[in-house]
């Protein structure tokens, strides 16, 4: 980057007005900013060693209204900066905490919209790897997926090149929502996000975090509260082996829409998997902030 580019980036950086700091940690600083009366926007200042320029460039090509629009990217001498739309609303985590378990119709509608967001990412070769209630915003126009702190580019799904087939070497994700392969059992791919969406659906239907495996499993098995069709969808989406899950979010979305319209396939009841018991370190789970490398964020144990 030459001096002219540096000066331009510094001038642009100074033009933003910081309203408040949302998060500050090893992975960078996240701020709420405005620009000449427009916004608000989220500005992330990422250390250069952690910058993933190609990933953010790809995210800028995503057009789904379920994803925040990337407004600008630029580079300072010591930071890579990304500015994207701020999405006002409440996290799904808080929504369920305040309301309790959601009825089947609302839970299905949210899950379908979540599939739309994740499907757009997958179409551009990105897997999110941290689809959790804390990273889902319920806004006036529906569901929005945020926080791409541990997202990665991926070529292929069930098969692909050597990069796609390689196991993840660092444990990342949120306890209770991270798929088994995120603990090094297998490569992560599109089916990793399918697993997480299944966990989110289970959380909505029970009001209990999957990190509390006993309470979650008991609540999900409550036939008076959770429709059998949705319970079967959760079980299939959250299968331990990726090959036993829906193989794409399109397939998961189709199953949800069939259940919503009462045309689901008849299938024998399945045992609902509980949270992976692999130990994990805690993180702060701040909305909009990235988990530190090597961390699995612990979700709260239960929801009322």
TrEMBL record:
The entry's keywords: ATP-binding, Kinase, Nucleotide-binding, Serine/threonine-protein kinase, Transferase
Region annotation (Disordered) ranges: 257-304
Domain Protein kinase: 16-257
Gene3D superfamilies found in the cross-reference section: Transferase(Phosphotransferase) domain 1 (1.10.510.10)
GO molecular function list: ATP binding; protein serine/threonine kinase activity
Pfam families given in the database record: Pkinase
Keyword check for Transport: no
Biased composition (Basic and acidic residues): 257-267
Full protein name: non-specific serine/threonine protein kinase
CDD domains in alphabetical order: STKc_PknB_like
Naturally occurring in which organism (per UniProt): Bifidobacterium stellenboschense
EC number annotated for this UniProt entry: 2.7.11.1
InterPro entries: Kinase-like_dom_sf, Prot_kinase_dom, Tyr_kinase_AS
């Amino acid at each position: 980057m030459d001096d002219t580019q540096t000066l331009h980036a510094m001038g642009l950086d100074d033009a933003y007005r910081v309203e408040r700091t949302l998060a500050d940690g090893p992975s960078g600083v996240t701020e709420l900013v405005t620009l000449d009366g427009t916004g608000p926007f989220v500005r992330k200042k990422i250390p250069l060693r952690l910058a993933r320029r190609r990933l953010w460039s790809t995210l800028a090509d995503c057009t789904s209204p379920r994803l925040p629009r990337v407004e600008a990217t630029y580079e300072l001498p010591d930071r890579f900066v990304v500015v994207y739309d701020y999405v006002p609303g409440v996290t799904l985590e808080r929504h369920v905490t305040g309301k309790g378990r959601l009825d089947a119709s609302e839970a299905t509608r949210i899950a379908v919209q979540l599939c739309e967001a994740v499907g757009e990412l997958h179409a551009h070769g990105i897997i999110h790897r941290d689809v959790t209630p804390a990273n889902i915003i319920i806004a006036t126009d529906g569901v929005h997926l945020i926080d791409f702190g541990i997202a990665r580019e991926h070529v292929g799904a069930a098969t692909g090149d050597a990069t796609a087939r390689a196991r993840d070497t660092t444990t990342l994700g949120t306890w209770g929502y991270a798929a088994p392969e995120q603990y090094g059992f297998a490569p992560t791919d599109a089916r990793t996000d399918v697993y997480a969406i299944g966990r989110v659906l289970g959380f909505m239907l029970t009001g209990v975090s999957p990190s509390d495996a006993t309470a979650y499993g008991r609540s999900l098995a409550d036939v008076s509260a959770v429709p059998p069709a949705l319970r079967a969808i959760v079980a299939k989406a959250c299968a331990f082996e990726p090959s036993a899950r829906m193989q794409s979010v399109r397939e998961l979305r189709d199953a949800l829409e069939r259940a919503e319209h009462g045309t689901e396939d008849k299938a024998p009841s399945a045992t609902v998997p509980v949270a992976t018991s692999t130990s994990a370190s805690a993180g702060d789970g701040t909305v909009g902030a990235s988990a530190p490398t090597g961390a699995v964020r612990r979700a709260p144990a239960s929801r009322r």
